[in-house]
Design goal:
heterodimer; A: 404 residues; SH3 type barrels; Nucleotidyltransferase, domain 5; five-stranded mixed sheet; 10 helices; 28% strand; B: alpha+beta; Rossmann fold; 5 domains; six-stranded mixed sheet; six-stranded antiparallel beta barrel; metal ion binding (chain A); mitosis (chain A); metal-binding (chain A); cell division (chain A); eRF1_Pelota-like_N (chain A)
Chain lengths: 404, 855
């Protein structure tokens, strides 16, 4: 995402103009834009005019609309963001207060304005939002090429794209493969068919050009991780090799970027294991994802060891912060960014203030995990927030009854 | 607006008529009209009060009465008489009289376009070419009550109501135009009827606009004035709307009247003339394939004489041949076809098609029959159920005691080889096959795997020397028939092993006694497998201490293993009396079916493996519970059985011809046939391994892990359940794989409800942060997709491959009661369950809620 203009004032009000450049930027926009913000973007609106005679005609007109955001709808598969709200600027074709849904588009600027309302209505550009903006703009240009992972088992393959901030499950291939039977059976045939369909799907999802004319340029080819329990991934790799050697030589460009790794199952929850494997680590070293996964593993380790130096859940973490356990010297606060997407302003303020407090007052480390990554999903299972503590805190059953 | 529309329609009609080419009066028609007019005039003058009518009036009347002179005379006479009487307002009178008859409460007058008659429509169809002498006279009652048209017909209808008259008078003024024409079969027309014509309007190119106009007419009660004008127009222009009734002799209704005689004569004459010049067969479309199949291809086109010529009725179309007045018959061949046909006939090709057709008739018939078959979207198979009382049959059957056992153990412990040996020694595998395996195995340098190949049939399994999926095989001893389920030992294939274990009554744990291997196995799958089978309900376990030859039948080694394993198994929950140990060697076959001859093994005098297997008792299964079967595999059995599923009946029974329900897809299927242990059977009961050949279901609805049940007692699908688990690893809210038999779905532990006391089940701690290994807890599990799970059942939760790579298992005990509660009560219940207040029943929960409310 390119930052075109930045007019954030001291109080937290202000506006920025951004230009999304790649699909993942839509995800950033999704996290930045909150209900209540003002969003200006170009829109195409169908305007219907009624003539005096009663006949109607409708035309599509290009407009620059400013809306007050009511709702966001993000489609991770196609990286599309639809923002709906009420129009607040007047144009020749629209009235104030009409509803409109803006579809943000790549390479088209949009302006986002956040206000701090006098009565605490808006939260403006708080520290988390500014962090998110930094992430989105990616000033250092550290972004790494994303990888494609195929997590498979017999008759089941998940094709997903691992980006810096999200893991998108692109397609699931499911096929009934006959099991081995006394006296042969169709198992091998079924597996071959399964490999064929998976490869076709993979190439389609990657937009991989298999024509021989595309040369030997391996530049744009992302790493492809094949993961499975047993020999399925290896068998798939072999299948790709044999295809490259026989029918589709264009596949040869793909071969060098393939890595076969082990996973415990063909489901997406074994993706964390895939990304922890040494082969993949060298490939995707020091991505945000890898760091987040590492943190989550550390956290679960602590939990498992029952050292009481790890806790999770909103109330527990807050109480630990109150006790000063998430501070300098190893205190880490893990927050899923889903918490900041909350519709409720008070809710967001609660988490933002907690983050600010840990970072600025306590001196601990704060990591906002992407809810669209596997590690973020694990964190979500724990209530969206967890903390590694500097000293053991005994939790005193503070709330088991409160919930009832 | 409506006025506007009516007009528009009218114009459209006009346009259409013009285009149709029927505008210019036909000279012959004109001539005939003149004749009729003359005779009507004569009649009128001759009648009692002699009256005169204008030519135009007579034309109108004739037109309305289909050139029936008598009726026309009747009508005109009546009209003129009235006119004479009421000279003051003749026009009004006239209209009134007509209106009265026009506005009966009948539906819209139906235009009679009989030119495309039923006969015409089926002209190509040979079955209508019935010789005249064989035709019966069929009188079909008209669909509508006959209308008394214009008051001329003797049996004209009754008086009209005042209201109707008023309405009619009003409408009359607006009426400009109408194309509707009352249908007037004032008397049945026997000859036409005989030919199958009905007075109903038939479809013509104009029918739509006509119908539209007709309905308009009925709505607005068009006045007779409109009709009259229309009638005039028609007579002069022979508008297509009147085509059928164009004043043509042949069309005139035949009456039992003196005139009738003269008319048929005319007709005959007319017929005779055009007939020869018509190339009748050539313009006839060939019979449809359907028709030729039904009646044989020869029946159709080769009949030279068209029916209408032979029949007593005369078809005007035939008489006038290709003349421009003929409405185009869209059911017949197109003009181009006619030309082509005529050309080909002229060239002498005519005979060819018909003869070839005759020759190919038989073949064509077959082809078409085949084609029809292909067309059918789905071929419903019905299998007649024998309606057996399966349980009674089962009671009567004298089968041997049967037992399923699963072979488990660490990878490379020699499970497959041991079982291969067992099968070979029991004669379940013939020598020849075994030799073949031996040669093939040696060829790829894995000679020692030859025995394992009996069970490892997959090409990959053989190439890698590792069992990947379960294999079942069977053998029989004197009093028991055994089914072996050989499970893979590698940790990646634990899901397959779980599937195998779910089919087993007891287990054989194979342990590699060689140095180092036993120890590594103990840390590996030896332990995991033992825990798994135990948690899945297996009570009895036989420990085969394998590869004793590799340690020179060292009794101390054996005792060490026995000690360690039995200690472990006891803690895992096996009763000591259900654990037995056999030292053996799979490769050599020692102590498997025969006692070892090695002197070093003389210290062991206990039972051999096969003897140990035979000590198993008969296992009882829930025969009387509703049918449940988890699908293990979906495959194509063969040409006769394109779709088969295999699995073990968990409970209930089924028989051939049963209708079953597949969950979660909810599709039903028919059991075409049943195989029990590879042999055809009429029925199967719980505990048996069966193959069901299915029909009437798309394979897409079948996946391994789905459950077969009956529509009368379907299994419920669920996405969340609460279960009591015995943890073997740390449990926390986390992602897990849920296994039940072949069912393997991802899910997550969403809540740790409580940790429980192992013995009493009392709550130790609510909402623990983490559940330590070895403790019992109640957890709530959410699944990504709905799966068929019902209480009571056992599920295995497995979180694979944390970085250590070692899977860890949570084992579970029945999720039952709580899960059900959960579903019934929805979210609220959930909360209570979470609070783990030990709610045992719905009622106690309701009490609790009451109490809370009061508070």
């Amino acid at each position: 995402m390119r930052l075109i203009k930045n007019k954030i004032e001291h109080g937290g009000s202000g506006e920025v103009t951004l230009c999304p450049e790649e699909p993942e930027d839509m995800w950033h926009a999704y996290n930045l834009i909150r209900p209540g913000d003002l969003l200006r973007a170009s829109a195409i609106r169908r305007v219907t005019t009624v003539q005096d005679t009663g006949s109607t005609s409708s035309a599509r007109v290009h407009l620059n609309l400013v809306i007050r955001v009511k709702n966001l709808d993000f489609d991770p598969q196609s990286s599309q963001l639809h923002v709906s709200g009420q129009i607040i600027n007047e144009t020749a074709h629209t009235k104030i207060g009409q509803f409109h849904t803006l579809d943000l588009e790549l390479n088209r600027n949009f302006t986002l304005e956040k206000e701090v309302g006098a009565d605490g209505e808006g939260v403006g550009w708080d520290s988390v939002a500014v962090e998110q903006l930094k992430d989105a703009v990616d000033e250092g240009g550290k972004r790494r090429a994303e990888a494609v992972a195929v997590v498979m088992q017999e008759g089941l393959a998940h094709i997903c794209f691992i980006g810096q901030f999200q893991t998108i499950m692109k397609q699931k291939v499911e096929m009934s493969v006959p099991r081995k039977r006394q006296g042969g059976g169709d198992h091998d045939k079924g597996m071959n068919k399964f490999y064929r369909v998976t490869l076709e799907t993979l190439l389609r999802q990657m937009d991989f050009n298999t024509s021989i004319t595309s040369g030997t340029n391996t530049d744009g080819v992302r790493p492809v991780l094949l993961a499975s329990p047993g020999f399925v991934a290896a068998g798939f790799h072999k299948y790709i090799q044999s295809e490259a050697a026989t029918t589709t030589p264009g596949l040869k460009r793909l071969l060098p970027s393939i890595v076969v790794v082990h996973s415990a199952s063909g489901y997406l929850n074994s993706l964390s294991e895939v990304l922890q494997s040494p082969a993949v680590k060298t490939l995707l070293a020091d991505t945000k994802y890898a760091r987040e996964t590492k943190l989550m593993d550390d956290f679960l380790d602590q939990l498992r060891k029952e050292t009481n130096k790890a806790t999770y859940g909103p109330r527990e973490v807050e109480s630990a912060v109150d006790q000063g356990a998430v501070g300098r010297g190893g205190g880490v606060l893990l927050v899923s960014n889903k918490l900041f997407r909350s519709q409720d302003v008070a809710e967001r303020k609660r988490w933002v203030s907690l983050v600010d407090r840990v970072r600025d007052v306590e001196g601990g480390e704060v990591r906002v995990l992407s809810s669209d990554h596997e590690s973020g999903k694990r964190l979500e299972g724990l209530g969206g927030i967890a903390a590694l503590l500097t000293f053991p805190v005994v939790d005193e059953d503070l709330d088991s009854d409160a919930e009832n | 607006m409506s006025r506007h529309r009516v007009k528009a329609v009218g114009y459209d009609d006009d346009d259409f008529e013009d285009d149709d080419g029927y505008v210019s009066p036909d000279p012959e028609e004109q001539e005939f009209l003149q004749q009729c007019t003359a005779s009507v005039q004569a009649e009128l003058r001759a009648g009692q009060p002699a009256v005169t009518a204008t030519t135009q009036e007579i034309h109108d009347a004739l037109w309305h009465y289909y050139n029936d002179i008598e009726k026309s005379v009747n009508y005109l006479r009546g009209k003129k008489e009235k006119e004479l009487k009421k000279t003051q307002a003749p026009a009004a009178q006239k209209n009134k009289g007509q209106m009265g008859l026009l506005v009966p409460g009948f539906p819209a007058p139906i235009p009679d376009d009989s030119n495309i008659s039923v006969t015409e429509f089926f002209r190509d169809c040979p079955w209508l070419n019935v010789p005249a002498h064989r035709k019966a006279d069929i009188l079909i009652q008209p669909l509508y009550p006959r209308l008394g048209l214009l008051g001329g017909a003797p049996e004209a209808g009754g008086k009209m109501s005042k209201l109707a008259a008023l309405a009619a008078a009003r409408k009359k003024k607006e009426s400009e135009k109408s194309t509707g024409i009352p249908e007037t079969p004032s008397t049945p027309r026997p000859s036409e009827r005989a030919e199958g014509q009905t007075p109903k309007p038939s479809d013509t190119p104009l029918s739509l606009s006509e119908r539209l106009a007709a309905s308009k007419l009925s709505k607005t009660s068009e006045s007779s004035g409109g009709l009259r004008r229309l009638g005039k127009a028609c007579t002069s222009t022979s508008s297509p709307a009147r085509r059928p009734s164009a004043p043509v002799p042949s069309k005139s209704p035949v009456h039992a009247e003196p005139e009738r005689d003269s008319e048929p004569a005319e007709q005959k004459a007319a017929e005779a003339a055009p007939e020869p010049e018509q190339v009748v067969p050539s313009i006839r479309a060939p019979p449809s394939t359907f028709a030729s199949v039904i009646l044989g291809s020869t029946a159709g086109p080769t009949v030279a004489e068209p029916s209408h010529v032979k029949s007593t009725n005369v078809d005007i179309l035939e008489i006038y041949g290709q003349q421009h007045a003929e409405p185009f018959d869209f059911t017949g061949p197109s003009p181009d076809d006619v030309v082509m046909n005529a050309q080909s006939t002229a060239k002498g090709f005519k005979a060819k098609p018909s003869t070839s057709k005759t020759a190919g008739g038989q073949k064509g018939q077959a082809d078409i029959a085949g084609g029809m078959k292909d067309l059918s979207v789905e071929e419903k198979v019905t299998v007649k159920s024998k309606n057996l009382d399966v349980l009674a049959e089962y009671g009567k059957s004298t089968r041997k005691k049967s037992a399923n056992f699963v072979v488990i153990g660490h990878v490379d412990a020699g499970k497959s080889t041991l079982m291969g040996r067992l099968l070979a020694d029991q004669g379940a595998i013939d020598r020849r096959t075994l030799d073949k395996y031996k040669i093939e195995a040696e060829k790829i340098g894995k000679g020692s795997f030859a025995l394992a190949w009996v069970l490892d049939q997959g090409s990959e399994e053989r190439a890698r020397g590792v069992t990947i999926d379960i294999a079942t095989n069977k053998f029989e001893t004197e009093n028991t028939s055994f089914t072996i389920v050989d499970a893979p030992g590698h940790r990646d294939f634990v899901p397959n092993m779980i599937a195998g274990a779910s089919q087993a009554d007891f287990a054989v744990l194979v342990i590699d006694s060689s140095v180092g291997k036993f120890e590594s196995g103990l840390k590996g799958q030896t332990k995991e497998h033992a825990l798994l089978v135990r948690s899945m309900g297996v009570q009895k376990i036989i420990v085969a201490v394998n590869k004793m030859d590799a340690v020179q039948w060292d009794i101390e080694r054996f005792q060490e293993i026995e000690q360690q394993i039995s200690a472990f198994l006891t803690t895992a929950g096996f009763q000591p009396k259900n654990i037995s140990f056999v030292p053996c060697s799979g490769v050599l076959g020692d102590n498997i079916t025969r006692r070892s001859e090695d002197p070093k093994s003389a210290w062991y005098q206990g039972r051999t493996l096969i003897e140990e297997l035979e000590t198993s008792e008969r296992f009882t299964h829930a025969l009387d519970k509703p049918l449940r079967m988890t699908i293990g595999d979906v495959f194509r059995g063969g040409v006769q059985t394109p779709l088969s599923i295999s699995g073990r009946l968990d409970s209930g029974s089924l028989q051939m011809g049963d209708q079953i329900l597949i969950m979660p897809s909810g599709e039903s299927a028919l059991v075409r046939s049943v195989e029990v242990d590879g042999e055809p059977s009429d029925w199967a009961v719980a505990g048996q391994n069966v193959v069901l050949n299915l029909a009437n279901i798309d394979p897409i609805h079948l996946r391994s892990g789905d459950v077969v049940c009956r529509a009368s007692a379907p299994i419920k699908t669920t996405t969340t359940f609460t279960t009591k688990v015995l943890a073997f690893e740390h449990l926390m809210p986390m992602q897990v794989d849920v296994h039940r038999g072949r069912l393997h779905v991802p899910g997550r532990i969403s809540k740790l409800v409580a940790s429980l006391d192992k013995a009493s089940g009392a709550t130790l701690k609510k909402r623990p942060k983490v559940v330590a290994p070895g403790t019992v807890a109640r957890v709530e599990v959410e699944l990504d997709q709905a799966v068929p799970l019902e209480a009571p059942t056992r599920v295995v939760l497995r979180a694979g491959g944390e970085y250590s790579g070692r899977g860890f298992i949570g084992i579970k005990f029945p999720c039952m009661k709580r899960a059900i509660l959960h579903q019934r009560q929805g979210v609220k219940t959930c909360r209570f369950v979470v609070g783990s207040l030990f709610i045992r029943s719905k009622s106690s929960m309701l009490n609790m809620m009451e109490k809370r409310k009061r508070l």
